[in-house]
């Protein structure tokens, strides 16, 4: 029996736990890693009274899961390695799917904010709880033979005493969704457990929860030994076995299916990372948030004639972008059409004049929070269109524009820039050969058609470098945002 099969058999049986009625979303991880299951339970137990601590526990959950995956991939973990270091190694070596790494980074960042700044609210904690469950399912599918493993519907935590209408609505939705998915027997068992818990006195409940936390924390003390044992098991794998594990991890990424609320949390973080003030729960039109000088706001649920836009991007008091955010697994290329309708229907005093036709906002975006992958281009990344010219095409971006980048893009008038290029002289202080001039003119003409990728094929010694320098001199800012590819 090979080492990988022995490892999988040792973990056998955890799938059956998913069919049982449990009091935690993380019970299914008990047979795989007691530290993961205990950290998940602790995060749930702190949710109601202390969402900041819940986020800290979820950050630790993500760190533990990252170390497990890195150990299985044969990465030597140094004492000085932070979780960010390990995530970078996994990405650089292509040892984990981008979708998973993005979610792990998000949980890490919110956990760091909770640790260092005391930040964290119930909405963020709930989104991260759901993400952590999805990450756990992914890891089970990757690390065991149970490729179709599932936990069933998410079990919502207790409603906080001071919860707002939005959080209450989300928890009610999750509870209804779960109730519809359970069998009659499972519903009866859950009702029985609820009756037992409701009969507890406040003092008994407090004692039980304190004892449970002590038990889980005691289990976590053995975490380093477990991780060392895991690393030793994985070290016996052959190259083919490790390659099979990497392939299983890639295929298992489909287990990370985020709902709309969790997707919004990811998009919020992505926008914040690029310099926008974004927080769907706080920075939204219905909360009275409005554009202000000197601020770069991504205001959620901005009203338009066609309905509320998911985000309106304001640089100062001017709306420069509309964002349509879809669920994580949705096709988003076509969602640009919806963003365009919102651009046409925006009513705001600083956007009184249309850019072209009926568009009152120059840039439109669509996203589902997923990292860009060429293989599934229309279902990933951030799709973008500059609506100021009718022949501008929608296209995917690798990441969000910063506020300064959008403001700079706003200053570029493409038709004038194209006309300026056509009249500009080839005077650089060095001579170009006729075929080099013809190549430059061909590229510049193609840029005017909105084609963004071109291949200039030139033989060795024919002056590719000089041609590239000449193009930069001629184009300057007018073509600085275009993608030019040169190859032998």
Automatic annotation (TrEMBL):
Identify the keywords attached in UniProt to this record, alphabetized. Coiled coil, Endonuclease, Hydrolase, Nuclease
Domain called DUF4145: residue spans: 43-119
One GO molecular-function entry: endonuclease activity
Q: Which stretches make up the Restriction endonuclease type I HsdR N-terminal domain?
A: 307-370
Signal peptide span per the entry?
Answer: none
Domain of life of the organism encoding this protein:
Bacteria
Q: What is this protein called?
A: Type I restriction endonuclease
**Species this protein is from:** Sedimentitalea xiamensis
Lineage in the entry?
Answer: Bacteria, Pseudomonadati, Pseudomonadota, Alphaproteobacteria, Rhodobacterales
